[in-house]
């Protein structure tokens, strides 16, 4: 199986990553994934760099930079991790709501209905 996701517009990239982030945060909050899993899958500096290269909202860039530090919070102050995860979830929702819609909704998965 080969899954390809191709997004060309900055707004769509930002939306996709925010939706993905919500799922990642919920998965960690519910114990379906670990912080280490989330770091492997999404919370890498590359994501913030990609957003910056695509002229993303500065707050979204900062959000992903901060999510890269969740592993540090787990190590340094594990008692605060749940609250930080919940806060990042709310921030992600607010940012997702703030992203303007593109003229036409786009398929996120290539060849989705072929």
UniProtKB/TrEMBL annotation:
Pfam families: DUF3969. InterPro entries: DUF3969 (IPR025083). This is DUF3969 family protein. It comes from Paenibacillus silagei. The lineage of its organism: Bacteria, Bacillati, Bacillota, Bacilli, Bacillales.
């Amino acid at each position: 199986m080969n899954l390809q996701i191709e997004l060309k517009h900055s707004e769509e990239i930002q939306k996709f990553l925010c939706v993905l982030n919500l799922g990642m945060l919920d998965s960690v909050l519910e114990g379906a994934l670990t912080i280490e899993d989330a770091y492997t899958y999404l919370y890498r500096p590359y994501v913030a760099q990609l957003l910056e290269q695509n002229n993303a909202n500065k707050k979204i860039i900062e959000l992903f930079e901060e999510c890269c530090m969740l592993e540090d919070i787990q190590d340094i102050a594990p008692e605060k991790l749940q609250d930080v995860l919940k806060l990042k979830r709310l921030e992600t929702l607010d940012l997702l709501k703030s992203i303007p819609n593109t003229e036409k909704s786009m398929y996120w998965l290539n060849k989705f209905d072929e």
